[in-house]
Design goal:
The protein is an alpha/beta fold. It is built from 18 helices and 12 strands. Helix 1 packs across helix 8 and helix 6 crosses helix 8. Keywords: Transferase.
Length: 431
């Protein structure tokens, strides 16, 4: 391996992944989400995007000409802009690979190989490299070459069928969760798989500094390919649906706001139109709710005597709870339920999340100064390790903001060489 340059100022000194350097060949959501998680935990992330920028830069409403989501999506990353169709860019990427512990990518299978940047080429540059590959269906199988986005993964993974009202209650199409859940779950699995592969690679390696696994041999020095499919990531979330089908022949159906196996658990409309979720599905909680409703006799009613009975008669039970809930405004309903220690809450909007004292107390909502936006709210780091709540080391930068610095630091490229490549359209650099 070549000598390893010192970590950049964007490496998270003292953080769990400090000293780890990751190259992101990602776009849209899944791979960038994985690297955001790694960056949040201290890894140095170098994101490669095309000269026109990652498409997410343009998604949603604009503030000061920029999409606010980018502030979070590319935080803790050094962004460089390369045209990967150019052979000169290929050589730059392989040069960077030599100085990185891992690569995260989410191109369609075969695309990087066509660019001369497949796994074989990258491993030739760094034999112990860990490559996390995210795609719609995985790197093999009959669907390998099909196009897919997160919504397709959610549909094939069985989730979209379940995000609907109960059969016969609505003619509208099954609804989307509201965020790119399939992409984000795949990103989480990619980050987990990457860290697991690095642990295998480095666990018996001599600890000699940042990225210390690079000199180890044998089992401990092995690189890896982490194969993550959007479809499989979503499919893995379906609880007992598959074993239920295989043993009982049942096909889980959508259940609207409720839970098919527990009652009462649903959203109930308060007098002022606010939806309040009440989860009183254990026997002690149901007794407490029945007493709070002024209907303690419900506990003795055979229809509601235990959870199985309540599930069978959930429509009648929800009607009773709904009628009671409608006597209160939302805030008042929340207050009486909280006083009775019954799990409950209104359905939070993002404004509710931003103002929530629990999120604020744990720095899960924090104000960050962004050069592109000024003060902007960021979500905090998950998971919290040893109580640490580090602020972002940087926010999403402009296109090519770090190209010149990264190429100088890692590849020793002179300013004139960078300028020549920019003039030729191979890269985009600022300053």
């Amino acid at each position: 391996m070549p000598p390893r340059p010192d970590p950049s100022p964007l490496a998270g000194a003292g953080a769990p992944l400090a000293g780890l350097r990751v190259l992101e060949l990602g776009h849209f959501v899944a791979a960038p989400f994985a690297t955001r998680l790694l960056g949040d935990l201290g890894a140095e992330v170098i994101k490669v995007e095309p000269p026109g920028g990652d498409p997410v830069r343009q998604w949603g409403a604009r503030h000061n000409g920029h999409a606010p989501w980018w502030s979070v999506h590319a935080r803790n990353k050094r962004c460089i802009a390369l045209d990967l169709k150019r052979p000169e860019a290929r050589e730059i990427v392989l040069g960077l690979v030599r100085h990185c512990d891992a690569v995260v990518e989410n191109f369609r299978p075969g695309q990087l190989e066509k660019l001369g940047l497949g796994a074989a080429a990258m491993k030739a540059a760094r034999p112990d490299l860990v490559i996390a590959r995210i795609s719609g269906y995985g790197q093999d199988g009959p669907y390998r070459d099909r196009a897919a986005f997160g919504v397709i993964g959610e549909a094939i993974g069985g989730l979209r069928h379940l995000t609907d009202h109960a059969p016969g209650t609505s003619d509208l199409p099954p609804v989307r969760v509201g965020v790119s859940l399939g992409d984000s779950v795949a990103g989480i699995y990619a980050a987990l798989g990457l860290v697991a592969a690095l642990w295998r690679r480095d666990r018996r390696a001599p600890l000699s500094g940042p990225g210390c696994g690079g000199e180890a041999g044998g089992e401990a020095g092995r690189g890896a390919e982490v194969d993550v499919a959007l479809t499989e990531s979503v499919f893995s979330l379906l609880e007992g649906a598959l074993p239920d089908y295989s043993t009982l022949g049942t096909i889980r159906q959508p259940s609207g706001g409720g839970i098919a196996t527990a009652a009462p658990t649903n959203a109930y409309r308060a007098r002022d139109g606010i939806w309040v979720l009440i989860a009183a599905n254990s026997d002690p909680l149901f007794r407490r709710l029945a007493k709070l409703m002024g209907m303690p006799e419900l506990v003795e009613d055979a229809r509601f005597a235990d959870n199985q009975a309540r599930v069978r008669n959930v429509a009648e039970l929800d009607a009773l709870i709904g009628a009671w809930a409608a006597r209160f405004d939302g805030r008042a309903l929340e207050a009486v339920l909280a006083e009775a220690d019954i799990p409950s809450t209104r359905a939070f909007t993002i404004a509710d999340c931003a103002a929530d004292p629990q999120f604020r107390a744990r720095d899960m909502v924090r104000e960050v100064e962004d050069p592109l936006h000024g003060p902007v709210l960021h979500p905090g780091v998950v998971p919290r390790i040893d109580g640490a709540v580090p602020p972002p080391r940087s926010t999403g930068p402009e296109i090519g903001a770090d190209t010149a610095a990264v190429l100088r630091e890692l590849l020793g490229m002179e300013k004139e060489a960078v300028a020549a490549l920019q003039e030729a359209g191979v890269l985009r650099a600022r300053g």
